[in-house]
Predict the structure.
Amino acid sequence: MNLHEYQARDILRRHGILVPEGEVVTTAAAARAAAERLGGSVVVKAQVHAGGRGKAGGVKLAKDPAEAEAVAGRILGMQIKGLTVHKVLVTPAADIRSESYLGIIVDRVSQRPVLMASAAGGIDIEEVAAKTPEKIHRLAVDPRYGLLAHQALALGFTLYPEVTQARAAAAVMQKLYSAVYDVGASLVEINPLVTTPEGKVVALDAKIVVDDNELERRHDIAALRDTTAEAPSEVQAREAGLTFIKLDGTVGCCVNGAGLAMATMDLVKYYGGDPANFLDIGGSSNPQKVVSALQIITADESVRAILFNIFGGITRCDDVANGIVQATGQVPLTVPIVIRLTGTNEQEAVRILTKAGFSALTDMDEAVKQAVAAAKGVAA
Amino acid sequence: MSIFASKSTRLLVQGITGRDGSFHARQMLEYGTSVVAGVTPGKGGQTFEGKVPVFNTVAEAVRATKANASVIYVPAPFAASAIFEAADARLPLVVCITEGVPVLDMTKVIPFVREQGARLIGPNCPGLISPGQSKVGIIPGNICKPGAIGVVSRSGTLTYEIIHQLSTQGYGQSTCVGIGGDPILGTNFIDCLAAFEADPDTVAVVLIGEIGGSDEQMAAEFVKANMQKPVVGFIAGQTAPPGRRMGHAGAIISGAGGTAVEKMQALERAGISVMKRPADVVPLLRERGVQSPSKGARC
């Protein structure tokens, strides 16, 4: 789950990292009022779950409250990478001496949290990572001991030659490391970490991605989810216990298991079609999930055919068949459906489907071919 | 023979009285796995299905039954603790089926498991099966067939699809291992490939990977440098968009290296035959000279 910048800033502040003040507002008039309280000259920043906000025009400097109102008016409602901006953060314009980057990710190769630090921070950090990776210093932290003081200080010196600032940066790193385990983050970033003319080390921007698997035990963090910042179909799917990702094609896919779902999408492409979505109904046996899945797929107007691909293991084919019958009984389908079921309780599933007037296949390739043909409006 | 699980596996089930644990313990018993103990704190002294003794702790269960492997079905918030307990009891094989284990928990589990010398498989995996010998986990026994193909995969149902292709066309399996779909795993492709290479009863290996990370690329390098046996590979997620988590926590294309195309090229460069679709598995095995038993070879 992505957090907004303002939420990530609050978390850093709670962990003792210096963060400039700021206010989150949803109207241009409120942005003006916030700018007045913050001393006039401010930065207005779109709060949206997309990278490259600055380059998309979602971050603007305003020299006075009137300009803050004007730029907030332009940013609110703006689309950035398909997401609408509903909130902006208004924060005092800072006088910056240098821009560094700090990040912690959970690294799959070392199987540890890896701290990354670079003196070449700022909006081009991705380019730095790609072209001059030697400018990013990395340290795999042993979670049994945490980030040790001397390790943090050594990285601090890669950012600032002067010991007071190197120590301040090291302290930020240790606080950032505790934040990772406190909130259950899979990624935290401060970019840029800046020094002020008074020599303070301050986090000017913050990004936190929380591991979805942590949310069940961290209700305070789960409550930070902003569903207005996500695609409505994906919110609906998550609430139904499904994993759904909207794509651009015409073949709506409903599959059990993530790997098989991806392989099914790939096979749709192989036979000349385009998948309309990724949808994994998971490993459980629950007809209601199938009903929700069909509702989500049929709500997509670009879907021309629906393909079910179920390999029964824990998932029972008869439960899926019952779900299909139940869902289509409530809302009749307007597009063709192709159903492939094999594995646990396959015979029973075929009986249920046949009785309701559906036909069922057992071969994956054959089912995908038929679904692709149906989406193109031709017989297979 | 087989890898990791065999006739001599004496299995302990953590969470045996839970909904998933009891269902799958029954399935494993039916398959013929020697399930010797169950553990559910507070239910020690009970008996499961009239024959499997239940204990309060793993250590007690191991002392009483000489169990040498554990399979874990406890809910995600308690899974890390269950793995710690199994490794602490010096079980050499720990298989964690549980899905949704927080990845930061795994950063703490892994060093402990390694220190104790245990092999952890998973989490978020279907487990493993050595057909005709032992089933540890949830892979449906009826789709498998004893034979000489080793299968290693990051997926669940996609693995079943490929096992199904193999079995129905006469290619049995020595062992099928689902290593799991999470970013941090106890056992990776290379561990399994090395074990299959060393297993005298495995003649060829099928590797099923997916987008995200670089495990498949590292596996490819291992195959090139260390394997004599033919390997056939598949990568799921050719149509997946970058930056989105495709169900499995590990299946996300972030930056270079994680795409299906890059992985397929890496496999090909290492001399692995790459399937375009699951149905290609048997034709490619034949192309690599691996015969089904009806054609004479031991499979």
